[in-house]
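Q: Hi! First time doing this. I have a protein sequence and I read that you can turn it into a structure. Is that right? Here it is:
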Amino acid sequence: MQFINNPRILFWLIFLLIMVAPVIAGVGELAPYLFFAIAIPLIIYQLISSKNYSLRPDFIGKILLVVFAIQMILAAISARTPGDILFGLNFLPILLYIPILAILSVTNFKNPVLLFAKLALASSFIALVAALIYFYGFGLSRAGALRVNPLGLAGVAINSGFFALLGFKETTGTKKYLFLLGPLAALVVISITETRGLFLAFLPMTALAFMLLLQGKWRIWIGVGGALAVVIAALVGASIFGLGRWQFLTSIPSMLSGGELELDSSLSVRFLLLSSGWQAFLDAPWFGNGWANIINAILIYIPDGSQRDAILLLAHLHNDLLDFAVTGGVVGIATYLGLIIAPLVAVFRMPKDSLHFARLFSVSILTTSYAFRGLSDLMFGFEANSLYYIAFLAIFFGVFRQKQAS
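A: Yes, that's right. Below is the predicted 3D structure, encoded as C-alpha coordinates:
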Protein backbone atom coordinates (compact mmCIF):
# COMPACT_ATOMS: atom_id res chain seq x y z
CA MET A 1 0.00 0.00 0.00
CA GLN A 2 2.98 2.29 0.42
CA PHE A 3 3.42 2.27 -3.36
CA ILE A 4 -0.14 3.50 -3.91
CA ASN A 5 0.46 6.35 -1.46
CA ASN A 6 3.43 7.62 -3.47
CA PRO A 7 2.42 11.00 -5.01
CA ARG A 8 4.74 10.36 -7.96
CA ILE A 9 2.26 7.80 -9.30
CA LEU A 10 -0.05 10.63 -10.36
CA PHE A 11 2.78 12.35 -12.23
CA TRP A 12 3.51 9.18 -14.20
CA LEU A 13 -0.19 8.63 -14.89
CA ILE A 14 -0.31 12.08 -16.47
CA PHE A 15 2.65 11.19 -18.67
CA LEU A 16 1.25 7.82 -19.75
CA LEU A 17 -2.42 8.73 -20.19
CA ILE A 18 -2.14 12.34 -21.37
CA MET A 19 1.21 12.51 -23.18
CA VAL A 20 1.36 9.01 -24.69
CA ALA A 21 -1.95 7.11 -24.68
CA PRO A 22 -3.87 9.59 -26.92
CA VAL A 23 -1.65 8.63 -29.89
CA ILE A 24 -1.86 4.85 -29.39
CA ALA A 25 -4.25 2.93 -31.66
CA GLY A 26 -7.03 1.29 -29.73
CA VAL A 27 -6.73 3.79 -26.87
CA GLY A 28 -6.61 7.28 -28.39
CA GLU A 29 -9.79 9.16 -27.52
CA LEU A 30 -10.42 6.83 -24.56
CA ALA A 31 -7.28 8.12 -22.79
CA PRO A 32 -8.94 10.92 -20.77
CA TYR A 33 -11.69 8.57 -19.60
CA LEU A 34 -9.07 6.03 -18.55
CA PHE A 35 -7.42 8.82 -16.60
CA PHE A 36 -10.71 9.64 -14.87
CA ALA A 37 -11.31 5.97 -14.06
CA ILE A 38 -7.83 5.38 -12.66
CA ALA A 39 -6.72 8.74 -11.31
CA ILE A 40 -9.86 9.87 -9.49
CA PRO A 41 -10.01 6.81 -7.17
CA LEU A 42 -6.24 7.13 -6.66
CA ILE A 43 -6.56 10.83 -5.81
CA ILE A 44 -9.36 10.16 -3.34
CA TYR A 45 -7.41 7.35 -1.70
CA GLN A 46 -4.23 9.41 -1.35
CA LEU A 47 -6.08 12.43 0.02
CA ILE A 48 -7.83 10.29 2.63
CA SER A 49 -4.70 8.32 3.55
CA SER A 50 -2.42 11.27 4.25
CA LYS A 51 -2.60 14.62 6.03
CA ASN A 52 0.25 16.05 3.95
CA TYR A 53 -2.04 17.43 1.27
CA SER A 54 -3.73 20.82 1.29
CA LEU A 55 -6.88 21.25 -0.77
CA ARG A 56 -6.88 24.99 -0.25
CA PRO A 57 -7.09 26.38 -3.80
CA ASP A 58 -4.31 28.60 -5.07
CA PHE A 59 -4.95 31.59 -7.35
CA ILE A 60 -5.63 29.43 -10.41
CA GLY A 61 -7.83 27.08 -8.38
CA LYS A 62 -9.97 30.00 -7.23
CA ILE A 63 -10.37 31.23 -10.81
CA LEU A 64 -11.37 27.76 -11.96
CA LEU A 65 -13.98 27.53 -9.19
CA VAL A 66 -15.42 30.87 -10.29
CA VAL A 67 -15.43 29.81 -13.96
CA PHE A 68 -17.25 26.58 -13.14
CA ALA A 69 -19.82 28.38 -10.96
CA ILE A 70 -20.49 31.00 -13.64
CA GLN A 71 -20.86 28.37 -16.37
CA MET A 72 -23.39 26.49 -14.24
CA ILE A 73 -25.34 29.71 -13.64
CA LEU A 74 -25.28 30.57 -17.35
CA ALA A 75 -26.51 27.07 -18.18
CA ALA A 76 -29.38 27.52 -15.72
CA ILE A 77 -30.30 30.97 -17.07
CA SER A 78 -30.42 29.79 -20.70
CA ALA A 79 -31.99 26.39 -20.02
CA ARG A 80 -35.15 25.60 -21.95
CA THR A 81 -35.45 22.20 -20.33
CA PRO A 82 -34.06 20.94 -16.98
CA GLY A 83 -31.58 18.77 -18.90
CA ASP A 84 -29.97 21.84 -20.47
CA ILE A 85 -28.43 22.72 -17.10
CA LEU A 86 -26.26 19.60 -17.36
CA PHE A 87 -24.22 21.23 -20.13
CA GLY A 88 -22.55 23.30 -17.42
CA LEU A 89 -21.11 20.07 -16.03
CA ASN A 90 -18.84 19.87 -19.09
CA PHE A 91 -16.58 22.21 -17.14
CA LEU A 92 -16.40 19.91 -14.13
CA PRO A 93 -12.99 18.40 -15.16
CA ILE A 94 -11.26 21.75 -14.61
CA LEU A 95 -11.88 21.37 -10.86
CA LEU A 96 -9.55 18.35 -10.81
CA TYR A 97 -6.75 20.90 -10.87
CA ILE A 98 -7.12 21.47 -7.13
CA PRO A 99 -6.61 17.88 -5.90
CA ILE A 100 -4.01 17.09 -8.60
CA LEU A 101 -2.02 20.17 -7.59
CA ALA A 102 -2.31 19.20 -3.91
CA ILE A 103 -0.71 15.81 -4.58
CA LEU A 104 1.92 16.91 -7.11
CA SER A 105 3.05 19.72 -4.80
CA VAL A 106 4.60 17.19 -2.41
CA THR A 107 6.49 15.25 -5.07
CA ASN A 108 10.27 15.48 -4.96
CA PHE A 109 12.33 15.00 -8.12
CA LYS A 110 16.04 15.75 -8.35
CA ASN A 111 15.62 17.87 -11.50
CA PRO A 112 11.90 18.03 -12.32
CA VAL A 113 12.27 20.39 -15.28
CA LEU A 114 14.83 18.25 -17.10
CA LEU A 115 12.83 15.10 -16.35
CA PHE A 116 9.69 16.65 -17.80
CA ALA A 117 11.61 17.93 -20.85
CA LYS A 118 12.95 14.44 -21.55
CA LEU A 119 9.49 12.92 -21.20
CA ALA A 120 8.04 15.61 -23.47
CA LEU A 121 10.69 14.92 -26.11
CA ALA A 122 9.92 11.20 -25.89
CA SER A 123 6.20 11.96 -26.20
CA SER A 124 6.73 14.05 -29.34
CA PHE A 125 8.75 11.26 -30.96
CA ILE A 126 6.16 8.66 -30.01
CA ALA A 127 3.53 10.85 -31.70
CA LEU A 128 5.78 11.19 -34.75
CA VAL A 129 6.36 7.43 -35.05
CA ALA A 130 2.63 6.78 -34.58
CA ALA A 131 1.73 9.27 -37.33
CA LEU A 132 4.27 7.78 -39.73
CA ILE A 133 3.00 4.25 -39.07
CA TYR A 134 -0.67 5.19 -39.45
CA PHE A 135 -0.11 7.22 -42.62
CA TYR A 136 2.66 5.40 -44.49
CA GLY A 137 2.38 1.97 -42.92
CA PHE A 138 -1.40 1.55 -42.89
CA GLY A 139 -2.20 4.15 -45.54
CA LEU A 140 -4.77 5.84 -43.31
CA SER A 141 -5.97 9.29 -44.37
CA ARG A 142 -4.59 12.13 -42.21
CA ALA A 143 -2.78 9.54 -40.05
CA GLY A 144 -5.97 8.67 -38.19
CA ALA A 145 -6.20 5.20 -36.66
CA LEU A 146 -8.50 3.20 -34.44
CA ARG A 147 -9.77 5.69 -31.83
CA VAL A 148 -6.94 8.11 -32.65
CA ASN A 149 -8.17 11.51 -33.80
CA PRO A 150 -5.81 13.49 -36.08
CA LEU A 151 -6.36 16.59 -33.92
CA GLY A 152 -5.58 14.63 -30.77
CA LEU A 153 -2.47 13.11 -32.31
CA ALA A 154 -1.16 16.46 -33.50
CA GLY A 155 -2.19 18.09 -30.21
CA VAL A 156 0.04 15.75 -28.22
CA ALA A 157 2.89 16.37 -30.66
CA ILE A 158 2.74 20.17 -30.56
CA ASN A 159 2.40 20.47 -26.78
CA SER A 160 5.08 17.89 -26.00
CA GLY A 161 7.35 19.12 -28.79
CA PHE A 162 7.49 22.65 -27.41
CA PHE A 163 7.59 21.57 -23.75
CA ALA A 164 10.71 19.61 -24.70
CA LEU A 165 12.49 22.93 -25.30
CA LEU A 166 12.78 23.28 -21.53
CA GLY A 167 15.66 20.83 -21.86
CA PHE A 168 17.53 23.31 -24.06
CA LYS A 169 17.93 25.55 -21.00
CA GLU A 170 18.55 22.72 -18.54
CA THR A 171 21.30 20.95 -20.52
CA THR A 172 24.80 21.98 -21.54
CA GLY A 173 27.00 20.94 -24.44
CA THR A 174 25.81 19.50 -27.72
CA LYS A 175 23.11 17.39 -26.02
CA LYS A 176 20.99 20.51 -25.52
CA TYR A 177 20.34 20.69 -29.27
CA LEU A 178 18.55 17.35 -29.19
CA PHE A 179 15.62 19.09 -27.52
CA LEU A 180 15.20 21.30 -30.59
CA LEU A 181 13.95 18.20 -32.38
CA GLY A 182 10.71 18.35 -30.38
CA PRO A 183 9.07 21.16 -32.39
CA LEU A 184 10.40 19.65 -35.64
CA ALA A 185 8.72 16.35 -34.80
CA ALA A 186 5.52 18.27 -34.07
CA LEU A 187 5.69 20.07 -37.42
CA VAL A 188 6.01 16.77 -39.29
CA VAL A 189 3.02 15.34 -37.41
CA ILE A 190 0.96 18.45 -38.15
CA SER A 191 1.85 18.15 -41.84
CA ILE A 192 0.97 14.44 -42.00
CA THR A 193 -2.32 14.88 -40.15
CA GLU A 194 -3.15 18.02 -42.17
CA THR A 195 -4.34 19.78 -39.02
CA ARG A 196 -4.34 23.37 -40.20
CA GLY A 197 -5.54 24.78 -36.90
CA LEU A 198 -2.45 23.43 -35.16
CA PHE A 199 -0.23 24.93 -37.84
CA LEU A 200 -1.88 28.25 -36.95
CA ALA A 201 -0.76 27.68 -33.36
CA PHE A 202 2.70 26.44 -34.35
CA LEU A 203 3.71 29.84 -35.75
CA PRO A 204 3.23 32.00 -32.62
CA MET A 205 4.52 29.17 -30.43
CA THR A 206 7.72 29.14 -32.52
CA ALA A 207 8.14 32.91 -32.23
CA LEU A 208 7.42 32.83 -28.50
CA ALA A 209 9.86 29.97 -27.86
CA PHE A 210 12.67 31.81 -29.65
CA MET A 211 11.98 35.02 -27.74
CA LEU A 212 11.99 33.26 -24.36
CA LEU A 213 14.94 30.95 -24.96
CA LEU A 214 17.34 33.31 -26.70
CA GLN A 215 19.21 36.24 -25.20
CA GLY A 216 19.97 39.63 -26.68
CA LYS A 217 18.12 42.40 -28.46
CA TRP A 218 17.71 40.40 -31.67
CA ARG A 219 15.66 37.61 -30.13
CA ILE A 220 12.28 39.15 -31.11
CA TRP A 221 13.33 39.46 -34.75
CA ILE A 222 14.76 35.95 -34.70
CA GLY A 223 11.48 34.65 -33.28
CA VAL A 224 9.39 36.40 -35.93
CA GLY A 225 11.85 35.29 -38.60
CA GLY A 226 11.59 31.70 -37.43
CA ALA A 227 7.80 31.80 -37.69
CA LEU A 228 7.97 33.33 -41.17
CA ALA A 229 10.41 30.64 -42.24
CA VAL A 230 7.85 28.01 -41.22
CA VAL A 231 5.19 29.79 -43.31
CA ILE A 232 7.46 29.90 -46.37
CA ALA A 233 8.34 26.23 -45.93
CA ALA A 234 4.63 25.40 -45.71
CA LEU A 235 3.87 27.37 -48.90
CA VAL A 236 6.66 25.61 -50.77
CA GLY A 237 5.62 22.20 -49.43
CA ALA A 238 1.97 22.70 -50.35
CA SER A 239 2.96 23.84 -53.83
CA ILE A 240 5.41 20.99 -54.50
CA PHE A 241 3.70 18.07 -52.80
CA GLY A 242 0.06 19.15 -53.01
CA LEU A 243 -0.80 18.05 -49.49
CA GLY A 244 -4.61 17.92 -49.73
CA ARG A 245 -5.99 20.29 -47.10
CA TRP A 246 -2.83 22.43 -47.35
CA GLN A 247 -3.56 23.36 -50.96
CA PHE A 248 -5.33 26.56 -49.93
CA LEU A 249 -1.91 27.93 -48.92
CA THR A 250 -0.84 28.08 -52.55
CA SER A 251 -3.54 30.66 -53.28
CA ILE A 252 -2.29 33.09 -50.62
CA PRO A 253 0.33 34.77 -52.87
CA SER A 254 -2.38 35.25 -55.49
CA MET A 255 -4.73 36.77 -52.90
CA LEU A 256 -2.03 39.20 -51.74
CA SER A 257 -1.62 40.40 -55.31
CA GLY A 258 -5.33 41.08 -55.73
CA GLY A 259 -6.76 37.63 -56.42
CA GLU A 260 -9.17 35.56 -54.35
CA LEU A 261 -8.36 33.07 -51.62
CA GLU A 262 -9.51 29.61 -52.68
CA LEU A 263 -11.37 27.93 -49.82
CA ASP A 264 -12.35 24.29 -49.51
CA SER A 265 -15.72 23.28 -48.03
CA SER A 266 -14.31 23.01 -44.50
CA LEU A 267 -12.91 26.54 -44.49
CA SER A 268 -16.10 27.87 -46.09
CA VAL A 269 -18.12 26.39 -43.23
CA ARG A 270 -15.72 27.94 -40.69
CA PHE A 271 -16.21 31.42 -42.14
CA LEU A 272 -19.96 30.90 -42.19
CA LEU A 273 -19.84 29.89 -38.52
CA LEU A 274 -17.94 33.07 -37.69
CA SER A 275 -20.44 35.38 -39.38
CA SER A 276 -23.54 33.63 -38.05
CA GLY A 277 -21.99 33.26 -34.60
CA TRP A 278 -21.37 36.99 -34.42
CA GLN A 279 -25.05 37.62 -35.21
CA ALA A 280 -26.12 35.11 -32.55
CA PHE A 281 -23.90 36.87 -30.01
CA LEU A 282 -25.57 40.19 -30.79
CA ASP A 283 -28.97 38.55 -30.17
CA ALA A 284 -27.98 37.73 -26.56
CA PRO A 285 -24.87 39.80 -25.80
CA TRP A 286 -24.87 39.61 -21.99
CA PHE A 287 -25.67 36.06 -20.92
CA GLY A 288 -25.74 34.22 -24.25
CA ASN A 289 -27.90 31.45 -25.60
CA GLY A 290 -26.47 28.52 -23.61
CA TRP A 291 -24.42 25.51 -24.73
CA ALA A 292 -27.60 23.51 -25.28
CA ASN A 293 -28.81 26.03 -27.86
CA ILE A 294 -25.54 26.97 -29.54
CA ILE A 295 -26.36 25.57 -32.98
CA ASN A 296 -30.01 26.59 -32.94
CA ALA A 297 -28.89 30.15 -32.14
CA ILE A 298 -26.98 30.47 -35.42
CA LEU A 299 -29.30 28.48 -37.72
CA ILE A 300 -31.52 31.47 -38.50
CA TYR A 301 -28.48 33.10 -40.12
CA ILE A 302 -27.49 30.02 -42.15
CA PRO A 303 -28.93 29.81 -45.68
CA ASP A 304 -30.40 26.58 -46.94
CA GLY A 305 -27.98 24.24 -48.69
CA SER A 306 -25.36 21.60 -48.11
CA GLN A 307 -23.43 23.79 -45.67
CA ARG A 308 -26.51 24.09 -43.48
CA ASP A 309 -26.77 20.30 -43.40
CA ALA A 310 -23.11 20.07 -42.34
CA ILE A 311 -23.58 22.66 -39.60
CA LEU A 312 -26.58 20.77 -38.19
CA LEU A 313 -24.19 17.92 -37.35
CA LEU A 314 -21.89 20.14 -35.27
CA ALA A 315 -21.85 20.44 -31.48
CA HIS A 316 -19.85 23.69 -31.36
CA LEU A 317 -18.66 26.53 -33.60
CA HIS A 318 -15.00 25.49 -33.95
CA ASN A 319 -13.80 28.66 -32.25
CA ASP A 320 -13.43 28.94 -28.48
CA LEU A 321 -13.98 32.67 -28.19
CA LEU A 322 -17.05 32.46 -30.43
CA ASP A 323 -18.37 29.45 -28.50
CA PHE A 324 -18.11 31.31 -25.20
CA ALA A 325 -19.59 34.48 -26.74
CA VAL A 326 -22.63 32.74 -28.23
CA THR A 327 -23.26 30.51 -25.20
CA GLY A 328 -22.48 33.00 -22.42
CA GLY A 329 -22.34 36.47 -23.91
CA VAL A 330 -19.97 38.98 -22.35
CA VAL A 331 -19.99 36.97 -19.12
CA GLY A 332 -18.97 33.84 -21.03
CA ILE A 333 -16.15 35.71 -22.75
CA ALA A 334 -14.89 36.81 -19.32
CA THR A 335 -14.71 33.18 -18.16
CA TYR A 336 -12.76 32.23 -21.29
CA LEU A 337 -10.27 35.04 -20.73
CA GLY A 338 -9.95 33.92 -17.12
CA LEU A 339 -8.98 30.42 -18.24
CA ILE A 340 -6.27 31.77 -20.56
CA ILE A 341 -4.92 34.69 -18.53
CA ALA A 342 -5.06 33.35 -14.94
CA PRO A 343 -2.08 30.94 -15.35
CA LEU A 344 0.10 33.76 -16.70
CA VAL A 345 -0.88 36.02 -13.81
CA ALA A 346 -0.14 33.17 -11.40
CA VAL A 347 3.42 32.85 -12.73
CA PHE A 348 4.22 36.42 -11.70
CA ARG A 349 2.45 36.08 -8.36
CA MET A 350 4.97 33.42 -7.34
CA PRO A 351 8.51 34.25 -6.15
CA LYS A 352 11.15 34.48 -8.88
CA ASP A 353 13.08 31.44 -7.72
CA SER A 354 15.38 29.20 -9.77
CA LEU A 355 12.36 27.56 -11.44
CA HIS A 356 10.66 30.82 -12.44
CA PHE A 357 11.79 30.54 -16.06
CA ALA A 358 10.54 26.95 -16.32
CA ARG A 359 7.10 28.04 -15.11
CA LEU A 360 7.06 31.12 -17.34
CA PHE A 361 8.11 29.21 -20.45
CA SER A 362 5.83 26.19 -19.99
CA VAL A 363 2.75 28.22 -19.02
CA SER A 364 3.32 30.68 -21.88
CA ILE A 365 3.61 27.81 -24.36
CA LEU A 366 0.51 26.07 -23.00
CA THR A 367 -1.72 29.14 -22.99
CA THR A 368 -0.51 30.19 -26.44
CA SER A 369 -1.22 26.68 -27.74
CA TYR A 370 -4.74 26.70 -26.37
CA ALA A 371 -5.50 30.28 -27.42
CA PHE A 372 -4.48 29.75 -31.06
CA ARG A 373 -5.73 26.17 -31.38
CA GLY A 374 -8.98 27.51 -29.99
CA LEU A 375 -9.37 29.66 -33.10
CA SER A 376 -10.43 26.54 -35.02
CA ASP A 377 -11.44 23.98 -32.39
CA LEU A 378 -13.10 23.48 -29.00
CA MET A 379 -10.44 23.52 -26.28
CA PHE A 380 -12.55 24.29 -23.19
CA GLY A 381 -15.91 22.75 -22.38
CA PHE A 382 -14.69 19.42 -23.77
CA GLU A 383 -13.48 16.99 -21.13
CA ALA A 384 -10.32 15.80 -22.91
CA ASN A 385 -8.74 19.15 -23.72
CA SER A 386 -9.88 20.65 -20.41
CA LEU A 387 -8.26 17.76 -18.53
CA TYR A 388 -4.98 18.09 -20.44
CA TYR A 389 -4.89 21.81 -19.69
CA ILE A 390 -5.33 21.57 -15.93
CA ALA A 391 -3.06 18.51 -15.64
CA PHE A 392 -0.17 20.40 -17.25
CA LEU A 393 -0.86 23.44 -15.07
CA ALA A 394 -0.76 21.23 -11.99
CA ILE A 395 2.68 19.99 -13.06
CA PHE A 396 3.98 23.50 -13.74
CA PHE A 397 2.75 24.93 -10.42
CA GLY A 398 3.05 21.77 -8.34
CA VAL A 399 6.20 20.01 -9.49
CA PHE A 400 8.16 23.05 -10.70
CA ARG A 401 8.68 24.47 -7.22
CA GLN A 402 11.79 25.71 -5.47
CA LYS A 403 11.88 22.86 -2.97
CA GLN A 404 12.51 20.38 -5.78
CA ALA A 405 15.59 22.32 -6.85
CA SER A 406 17.37 21.78 -3.55
